[in-house]
From TrEMBL, chains A, B, C, D, E, F:
The keyword Transport does not apply. InterPro entries: 4-OT, 4-OT-like_dom, Tautomerase/MIF_sf. It comes from Massilia eburnea. Residues 2-61 form the 4-oxalocrotonate tautomerase-like domain. This is Tautomerase. The active site is at P2. Belongs to the 4-oxalocrotonate tautomerase family. Pfam families: Tautomerase. Keywords: Isomerase. It comes from the Bacteria. GO terms for molecular function: isomerase activity. Its EC number is 5.3.2.-.
């Protein structure tokens, strides 16, 4: 009966990629802990880059710096 | 001082239904644990059906299958 | 397919009270949004009073003040 | 390696204010627990006022009452 | 910079199994979204079976029913 | 009416340090967004080092490597 919450930045994740995350997480719980996939929830939260910070800066700024390199 | 987080799929929940969830959760905490409603928080998260998975599939696909029955 | 997370302070909640919270939350989701109880998750987190703050103080201190009144 | 999740109502928080929350939270973890800012995550969730409840009502209603005073 | 939170019931998950969940989740995010493993967090929460409900009952009761079959 | 959730590894955080986190987070929300401290919640979760992963390994292993340097 696991619950998996994946939070990533909102930078163009496609429905196909989301489905891969759902399938992969579910397989992992089935393989490692023998959980029932029918009651394994996976929820993906997409977070705006202005709303995610690390190292005192937001991801919007970090992405701009990466491009300038 | 409870915090209640309700996560549901984003499938047309109305403001009236949200208010019922808020009232009902608060009443539950007051009734069962004698909590103060003035400091009982209820937060509802609406999750896109592409972003919620169960049984190796997303809810978008599950809803399509349900309609085809 | 809702997910309900109830966070309360760890102050002697009994298994019977937890079950009431589980039943009540599930009934609420069934009644208001017609959700399937078989895939309605309720998770209760009990948080130490030192780890929960409001109004610049922790709940440990708040409870002591309430007793002194 | 801390993770900080700040949930506020969606009422016009500016990118500059979000950055102040990110910087302030990170500084707090560095100062109090000597954490490494490079692995300190801060995620801000903005919640619609219809989706946040306290005291049996949603914040939409509460804000209207505050204006009428 | 993903954040993965896995919530499972507290039923004897070993450190080795936890490590497999950490590795598997990280590999999934690297493979599907090309994320940097150095900033991919995985947090596992173990929840008491009295505190996890589904279908109006807690997991403690569900496990007892499963044994009686 | 903000909700702040701080997750750190369980490595001997003292009640005094927790209180500093509570006060500092609350002050931050008051200063940046003019929030009411009386309805600003701060919850600290302490996570076992076996249950927190980054870079394919858990924090237990990471701390051992740091000591060996």
């Amino acid at each position: 009966m696991p619950y998996v919450n994946i939070r990533v930045t909102n930078e163009g994740v496609t429905p196909e990629q989301k489905l891969e995350l759902i399938k992969g997480s579910t397989e992992l719980l089935v393989r490692v802990l023998n959980k029932d996939p029918a009651t394994t929830f996976v929820i993906i939260d997409e977070v705006e880059t202005d709303n995610w910070g690390v190292g005192y800066e937001n991801i919007t700024t970090r992405r701009q710096k990466e491009k300038q390199r």
